[in-house]
Amino acid sequence: MNRNLSDGLNFFSKVTPKRAWNALKVLSSYYESKRTGKSVHRGLPIALSFEPTTSCNLRCPECPSGLRSFTRPTGMLPEDLFKRTIDELADTLLYLIFYFQGEPYLHPQFLDLVGYAHQKGIYTATSTNAHYLTDANARKTVESGLDRLIISIDGTTQEVYQQYRVGGKLHKVIEGTKNILKWKKELKSRTPHVIFQFLVVRPNEHQIDDVKRLAKELGVDEVALKTAQIYDYEEGSDLIPTIDKYARYARQSDGKYTIKNTLDGHCWKMWHSCVITWDGLVVPCCFDKDAHHRLGDLKEQTFKQLWQSEPYHDFRQALIRSRSEIEMCKNCTEGTQVWA
Length: 340
Fold this sequence. Notes:
Low-confidence stretches: 335-340
Order of helices and strands: HHEHHEHEHEHHEHEEEHEEEHHE
Number of helices: 12
Number of strands: 12
Largest sheet: 10 strands, mixed
Mean pLDDT: 90
Strand order of the largest sheet: 11-10-9-1-2-3-4-5-6-12
Helix content: 25-40%
């Protein structure tokens, strides 16, 4: 069976009548809000991102974890907070991403948390730099029921890889990938669906064909070519690719750069998903890396209370009114991943 088809069938196998009904309520609420200009929400999130930890072993130049530049504290997601939230949302939640900032495998109970969500029939995914995919962790990953494993591999030679993945070792990424694929075969498991994610930047753009070949040689299921978010892009950056297709930013006649996307007065993410930090703060999306827009705290309220709260309503309304007025939305480019 085609690997992408297999992953798609696995995803749709998670759809239950309650999850389908909730998705319809979310979709209808979004289009009603878009049409009327008034924020309406009648459902619960279809997808969630849970942050296992802000800790990371690498020092990538455009990542707050890598730069150690957070103003919020570093820590590990408490198991009880995670389970309580999953128990509350399991009937309607379809997709759970174990990632926001940091390296998930640094959380001691990470794969136990994955297993808990898997038992609830939720599609689970994570993103990793693959430095901790030892033989033992690879087996546990497959046994946990994880559905999708995104492996960051931003170069096919150590010299190129380390220019963005500062402090990383390419041989560990390849070894970890081989461990996962070995245990999938040993345990006769179709999951996780393994994706090589290649963040296209100027130092590695000449290796796009190479990463596709490497993925094929190893037996990786898919390659995703992702565009890079640059924080200070106006004056240009050595990371902005020369291949226009993979650049989020366009050079203007005066030499300055602007973001390509038009900032429409709406955002689907604000209706169908959100992000939960390791310490229980709920923020609008993955662009709020330092948790400036805090819409609730799961240590103090239930998820359902905060999802329908006044702060959340006001934030969605502000988006409809003028997305360009929200600072983090100015550097947002939804749909900036090119599937190879």
